[in-house]
Structure formats: C-alpha cells, structure tokens
Amino acid sequence: MTTTHRTAPAHAASSSTQGSPGGEHGPAPLTSALRVAGGVLTLVGAYLPWATFVLNDGAYPAKATLEFFTEPFGVTGFRLHLLALGAAAIVLSLVAVPGRGRMLRALGVGIVAVTGVNLGYLVALGGGFGAVTASDGDVAFGALVTLAGGALVVAGSVLGGGAGAGAPRYGWRLHPVAECGLLLVVFVLLLLLVSALLTSGGQGGAANVYSGAVFLSFLAAVGGAAGALNASGLLSWVAAVSERHHVFSVAVLLVCALALPLTGAGTEYWMTVAANIGVYAVTAIGLNIVVGLAGLLDLGYVAFLGIGAFVAANLSGAAASKVGLSVPFPVVMVVAAVVAGLFGAVVGSPTLRVRGDYLAIVTLAFGEIFVRSAQNDIGGLTGGSNAIPGIPPVEVLGTSFDGPVTLGGLELPPGVLYYLLIVMITALVMLVFGNVKNSKLGRAWIAIREDEDAARAMGIRTGPIKILAFLLGAMLAGFAGAFFAHKTATVSYESFRFLESVTLLAAVILGGMGTIPGAVLGASILFVLPEKLREFSDYRLLLFGIALILIMRMRPQGLVPDRHRRAEFVETSTAKAAGS
C-alpha cells in the first residue's frame, strides 16, 4: 500500500498564510502580470531575429544557430531553451505552489543568463553592437526582448515576496519499489544531462567556433532549471529518498558512470578527460581526509601524487627509467601508495608542534622541495627536464588499455578501459573512506578539526591521529599517481606544481569539506570547466574564476555539504534572521 503525506516547516507554513498563495504578500495582480508578461516576452523573443548580419549562411535565426539540435518548435539551440524557461515561468505564474517566488526568480535569472551569454557572443562576433543594429536602421530585437522578459520575471518574483523564503520540505513516502523506480529515472536523466553538457558545442571547444557560447548557454539554462527545482523542494525530497535507499542509489550511480561511454560522450577525447578526472577525484578524496575531516591545511598535497607517479614510472619497465624493473601494474600501485604514505607520515610529523598558517607553510615548502628535486633529477629517478617517457600501457590478457575495444558489434573508443578502471577504483575508494568517516577514527578527526585542545582533553591522542590522516591521504594520492603514470605514458615534474595543489584544495572546498561525494563532484567541475572553455583562450581563467565565485556565493557550504557544516550554516542564517 502506498502512503503519501506532506509536512512543511513552520516558516513555510507561516509564509503561505500571508497575502496571495505561494508565500506572496505584495500586490498579487501586478506581480502576476509582470511574471506572465516576462514569460510571454521570452517566448516572443525566441522567435525574433537576434542579429543583423549573416551567420552560418542564412538569415539569423532561420538557419543561423549556435547549436544544431532538432527543431520540434521551429527553433533550435538556445532559443529552444528560452522557450522552455519562458513557458515554465508562465505556468508557475498562474499556479499557486509552495516556493513559487524563488522558483520564478531562478527561472528569470536563467533567462537573463542565457540571453546575456548569446548576446555578448554575438556582439563580440559582429565586432560591436552593430550585431543587433544595422546601419540601415534594421534592429534585431530578439535578445533585447528576451532580456526584458527575464528582468520582468525576476522583478515580479521579488516584488511578490516569498523569493527569499526557504524551500518547502516534503515528507512524501511512496512504496519502496516506486521510490527505487523514481531514483532510476532520475539517475538516467542525470546521465543524459552530463552527456549533453560534455558534448554541447563539440569536444573541448575545438569542434566549431561557437562551442564556448553553446556550453555557457546550455549551462545557464540548466542552472536556471536546477535552481527552480531546488527552490520547489523536490531536489531535497529526491535526496532524502536517495538516502533512504542508499545502497540502491550507489549501485545505480555506478552503473550510470560505467554507461557513459555508450552516450554521446563516448569519444576518445572525453574518455581521456574522464579518466584524468577520476585520478584527481581519488586524489581529492585523500586531501579531503587531511583538510575536510582533520582540518589540517595542506598546500603541497600534489607532491604525493607526483611521488606515486614517479615510483610507478621507475617500476614500469620504461626505457628511460634508471631502475630497470618491470613490475606488474597491481603491485606497482600498492608500492606507490606505500612509498607515498611513508612520505606523508614524515611530512605529518611537524603537525605535532605547528598548526594553522604555520602548518600550511611547512606543507607548501615540502611541495616546492619535491618539484625542485624532480626538476633537478636527484638520484636519476625523475628524468629532470626530460621527464620519464615511454611508460608502457596496462595490459590484461593481451589487451592494451589504450586501444579501442569491441564488444559484439559495438566498438568503444580508445582509452575506455582506463576510464572503466578508474571508475571502479573511485567507487571502491568512496565506499571504504565513506565508512572510515563514520568510524571512531573519522569522528576523532572531526573532533580535532572542531577543537584540537578539547579533543585532547577528551582523551583523543591527537598527534598519532593527525599523522595517520597525512599517511592515509598520501597513500590515496600515491595510488592515483601510479594510475596517472600509466595512463599518460609520461611523467614530468611540471604536472605537480603548486597550482595543482590549489586546484585540488578548491575542489574539496567547492564540493563540500568533509564529504566524499563532494570531493568527486568538485574535482569533476574544476577539470571539466577549463576543458569546455578552451575557446576563450586567455579569458577562460577569468570565466573560470567568476564561475567559482558565483557557486561559492550561492552555496558557501559546498555543493554536497557535510551535515555538520550544513547545521552550522543553518544556525548562522537563523541568527542573522533573528538579529535583523
């Protein structure tokens, strides 16, 4: 039997009793008119010309487009996205639902963002605002109309009130089979969305001259839709359902990750990028132990990844290696992890006497010492400026991991075996260290992070436990480094500079300190965004930085926050609300 009920927090219930439905307390007819007008203008603007010059051998937008999708409504690409956002804004303006104000604000921001990206790109492509205004007086009103439409939707949501209220919470409980079916549909849709994001505009900004604008436009549309779903409370409910069926969710996510090569992202380029993301995801999980759980700031962590990579390179049988040994790949990974862990214990020893900024300086010095030593080829183990090339690929039963694979009549791209292997490794690492976090050791790390003196007073041996955090984090990085060496076939000191440590630290903070899935998500975002923004060349780091600022402004606790940090931010926001 299926039972269904819904609960809402007190602040949501109180807000819904004021003024118009949906938590609004402004002039309802005026705000509704603004929202509907904004949605209608968005629909109209999607069909109007967006530029006065010829693009893609046709009048814009009849043949000219920044994307090449199907045409179910006579439009393509970003105009199709605007149609969807505009239609959703109109429907929500006419239907009273909890969280409607915040949902409409997210949709309006999405409309403005999609319009802004494409308008800015067309202006740059046309050499100025002549892209929308011709010398003969002809004006392309499409972008201007949709921009006004998005602004009206945002204005209506803000004036109507309720836009700043928290998302409603639902306590619906369906039959377990129905909930598992729902999760299966959600994860399959998520897989298709990831594939669409990766392939939008081509691979890495190299397929066509519009790839950067295509990706940013698609990302803006997805962001607006995701913001609306989050404001509705549905995403929180799906997350709660996923938590109730944790094992099933993990299994389906693993299957979806393994199925990525069967989607549009199943190319040699994206398999290479995805495999590298897996390497940095495993490394970020190790750093999350040190920084996220134990609260020890490590600015030289990438050195452990380099140690594992150089150990693997010297034991792989590469011609440039001075060791001259050829050890099986599984053994190499274990040896690389052990050696990196020993270095981690050595570096962690000073944590018994220093903390905070002084610890950061010690770890930063270790990272620089490693890079300089590798550059100077100390002991002949790093190759110096010549690196160590020619590392043989992994082979199993005569099958090379860097070649294509044929399964029946399906031919998978080269490098897919490396991707499948790193997915399994990442899943295993997430499983093991997810349990470690909830163990006695993990709780001891969290206690040290919150207050080391109080933890010591409660009987926790803080010194050995902090060293153990460094050791385990370094072992994970060394383990990933061994995979990295065989995947790239060349190991150079240039791959382990200070900037890489900063990027890994940003991945941990962005994903959510202390959460294992957050480290994986943060690493994925930080290594996919630069690839998709390659078209912008010198400006891609600027855009990358702006994106990080926006994400952290909207989600300061991280994309997948730890329950402790989530509670801290809830208490902070509650205190601010009480003080105001």
Word description of this protein:
The chain has two domains: 10-175 and 209-223, Up-down Bundle (de novo design (two linked rop proteins)); 273-524, no CATH class. Helix content is 63%, strand content 2%. The chain has 580 residues and is mainly α. The chain has helices spanning 10-16, 28-47, 77-94, 100-125, 142-159, 176-199, 211-232, 234-244, 246-258, 268-293, 302-315, 329-348, 357-375, 416-437, 440-450, 452-457, 462-488, 498-511, 516-532, 540-554, 563-579; strands at residues 395-396, 399-400, 405-407, 410-412. The chain has 21 helices and four strands. The strands form two sheets. The protein has a two-stranded antiparallel ribbon with strand order 1-2. Strands 3-4 form a two-stranded antiparallel sheet.
Widest sheet, order of strands:
1-2
Structural class: mainly alpha
Name the beta content range: under 5%
Mean pLDDT: 80
**N to C succession of SSEs:** HHHHHHHHHHHHHEEEEHHHHHHHH
* Proportion in helices: 55-70%
Span of the ends, CA to CA:
47 Å
Main pleated-sheet profile: 2 strands, antiparallel
Number of strands: 4
Total helix count?
Answer: 21
Q: Poorly predicted ranges (pLDDT <50, ≥5 residues)?
A: 1-26, 58-72, 205-209
